[in-house]
Amino acid sequence: MNLYPLQFYPILKERIWGGTKLNSVLQKPVVSSTTGESWELSAVPNDVSVVSNGAFKGKSLTTIISDFPEEVLGKAVFEKYGFDFPLLFKFIDAREDLSIQLHPNDVLAKKHHNSLGKTEMWYVMQADEGARLIVGFKEDSNQEEYLQHLEDKNLIVLLQEYAVSKGDVFFLETGTIHAIGAGVLIAEIQQTSDITYRVYDWDRVDAQGNYRELHTDLALEALNYTSHTTKIDYSTTVNVPNKLVHCPYFKTNRIVLDGTVDWKSHEGSFTVFMCTEGEFRFKMNEELYTYSKGDTVLIPAQIEGFEISGKASVLEIYL
């Protein structure tokens, strides 16, 4: 079987803080006013993506990897992760502030949840006036200071807030305390993990009057109290990959496309494209594939190259 660029049905997630931008901005089939996440490409158990185009339409990501492991994942990725797809791709719409939270590293996630850890990055696709992200401590802190402010419900005074706009990029290593603020729409690239330690949820309740679960004790073991830089500065040159985040778990570039370029695969790895603005096309074996803002596409490692054309902003992710 000759593989081709694969798209998947979005897995939509209701969240207490969600909104309607996934539909109004990204044209996802949202049916409520509190849809917070669109999982674009996932192998998380019970949330495995299903192909929406071509000969494999209706087949799950895990089935395709099982049938064509090296052809889809790439030799190097398969040797490291086996049949497991190592990344999770999302769009997130925060109508309200998300909880203040953090994620464990691989060791703790394995120990407590038999899961990978959750290193992640954010690319801001849209931000309302005055919107902000909360990422990390303003200054180095410690457990005593953290717990006192948590008990007093003024943890926010210890944390770094960033006013944000379209195109801003943040890299969150495990243990980094954070919250996506109200009015922000982001693309998120992360390890395949759904482990979150929620430490403060603004004292809000759900429709039934219930508070959401907090994970105070687990968070203490995972928290990094050191202040460190999380916002990524980057340059932009048209029609070439511009480095955003290159870490042990994934590499992400931004391509500002204006015209036609030849794309080459990354040896040993699949590639994922997330379109954050505009429209572009792949031409491969005389076949045309067209994508627009909000589309996510998996390029199997077997595909070595093709022509890309259009006017768009695209995130390119690989291992």
From TrEMBL:
Residues 243-318 form the Mannose-6-phosphate isomerase cupin domain. Keywords: Isomerase, Metal-binding, Zinc. GO terms for molecular function: isomerase activity. This is Phosphohexomutase. SUPFAM superfamilies: RmlC-like cupins. InterPro entries: Carb_Metab_Reg_Kinase/Isom (IPR051804), Man6P_isomerase_Firm_short (IPR014628), MPI_cupin_dom (IPR049071), PMI_typeI_cat (IPR046457), RmlC-like_jellyroll (IPR014710), RmlC_Cupin_sf (IPR011051). The keyword Zinc applies. It holds the Pfam family MPI_cupin_dom. Residues 10-115 form the Phosphomannose isomerase type I catalytic domain. It comes from Flavobacterium chuncheonense. It comes from the Bacteria.
